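To whoever is on call:

I kicked off a structure prediction for a single chain this morning and the downstream step that reads the tokens threw a length-mismatch warning. I double-checked the sequence; it's 177 residues and nothing unusual in it as far as I can see. Pasting both halves so you can look.
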Amino acid sequence: MPDQASYHFVADYSDTVQEGLPGVVVPQQVYKPPAGQPEYKRLHRISFTHNGLPGIRLADALRLPIPNLHRAQSKPMLSETGTRVALRIMWPGYAPWSHQNAIDIFDHTLQANPATLERIAHRIATLFRGFCEEKSRERSREPSWQLRHDSFDKLYLVELRHVSKGSWQPVICWDMA
């Protein structure tokens, strides 16, 4: 496996956080934008804490409101220039997956309020469910990371990382117990 800097890894977290993670961090390759794309200002990671522990089970994020999501009504910055951002998934053993215009930065009210952490988690959960359904019908090149019809219920969203201008990649834990 290449160096850890090119993958989202458990080593990215302190020992204290690692102990609270709800499973194994899926070693997704970090998305790299195509050559020639202009430099971008990397935005802060967006962390998800639910019931006092790192990560939120994606199945729990499908229902709004999300009780006990820390900072649920906070409004993290997703872009300094656009109104929507892409979501990129680099699941081991599968072709890279992306969804353009995946997350609206503002809600659809007249006030155009910034998206809340709760709404972002909900949208990612919705997209990830579709990703799991699609990929569970395909054979993974890495059998230990094969997605099955029941995999979604065991996945946790830990963070979102800004990987290029207008693109974010989720850090996912898989409870393989």
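Update from on-call: the warning came from a stale cache, not from the record. Cleared it. Sanity check on the structure: The mean pLDDT is 89.
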